[in-house]
Structures are given as C-alpha cells and as structure tokens.
C-alpha cells in the first residue's frame, strides 16, 4: 500500500473482519459521507477517526496491528507514524532504516528495535534453508531431475536478495 490512507483502510477492514461489531464505527461515518468517505481528499481524517474509535472500543483486547514495509508508503507516512504513537494497541512496524522514519520512531518510549541488516548472515541462512525446502518440494511434485533442481536453486539464490517473500511469490 503506497499511502497512509490505504494502510488505514486495510487496518479497518482487517479489524472489522476480526471483530464484526466494529462495522458500527464505519457505518456512523459512512451514513453521513457515503462512498466518498473512503476516497476523497478528507479520507485520511475520516478513516483515522474511525480507526481511533475502534482502537478505543472497550471490547478490543490485546490487539496487535502490523504495518509491513512502511518505507514503501510514499504519501502521509509521517501522519501514520503520529497516529500510531498514542495507542492502547501494540504496533509492529517493519521498514528500511530511513532517516525520516528513524526520527519519527526515536521518541517512542516502549519499543523494541530489531536491525535485520545486523543479522544478515543468520537471515541469509534461514532464507537458503527455506529455498532448499521449497525447491525440493517443487522438484518432488514436478519430478524434476538434479540439473533442473540446481538451476532453480541458483536462480532463486541470485535473485532473492535474501528475502523470504520473493521466494514465496516465485
């Protein structure tokens, strides 16, 4: 999702899926604004109020919201980070270590930071193990010989940049 409004829409959708009674928070705003609630220039304001109401709902207990690849959020990324700060829920945010994101996250009191680039060797080993498993599974299912199996492993290893997602998608 390339903008913060789309991230909010996605989080709202997922929360309603997990807690169907939360649709009432959406209906209140939707009855007034209609479809434009999700699409016009004021969508961020409306959706952030809806999500805030959901997160403040007493029936929400122990929620964890995950935002993956925040660095790929090109528009209003800082608004999203500001929104996440004062919250009863736990947020897991993954991102490249970009300075603007680091600065926004710096003052958050309760946080745990994992620097994956510092553990690149361990991650690379885990990805390679995953590769071997997936290639072996594919070779077994398709009855590939050793030569084709090795060609697939070589291709995946050289193109993945040590990421699980790339291999999972391919």
Automatic annotation (TrEMBL):
InterPro entries: NPHP3-like_N (IPR056884). This is Nephrocystin 3-like N-terminal domain-containing protein. Residues 3-96 form the Nephrocystin 3-like N-terminal domain. Keywords: Repeat. Coiled coil: none annotated.
């Amino acid at each position: 999702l390339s903008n913060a409004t789309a991230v909010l829409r996605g989080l709202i959708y997922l929360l309603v899926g997990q807690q169907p009674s939360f649709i009432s928070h959406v209906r209140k705003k939707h009855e007034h604004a209609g479809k434009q609630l999700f699409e016009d220039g004021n969508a961020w304001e409306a959706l952030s109020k809806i999500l805030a109401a959901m997160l403040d709902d007493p029936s929400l207990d122990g929620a964890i919201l995950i935002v993956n690849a925040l660095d790929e959020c090109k528009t209003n990324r800082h608004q999203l980070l500001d929104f996440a700060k004062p919250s009863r829920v736990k947020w897991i945010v993954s991102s490249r270590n970009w300075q603007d994101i680091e600065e926004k996250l710096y003052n958050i009191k309760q946080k745990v930071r994992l620097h994956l680039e510092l553990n690149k060797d361990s991650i690379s080993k885990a990805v390679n193990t995953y590769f071997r498993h997936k290639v072996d599974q594919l070779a077994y299912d398709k009855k590939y010989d050793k030569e084709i199996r090795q060609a697939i492993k070589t291709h995946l290893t050289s193109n993945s940049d040590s990421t699980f997602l790339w291999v999972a998608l391919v």
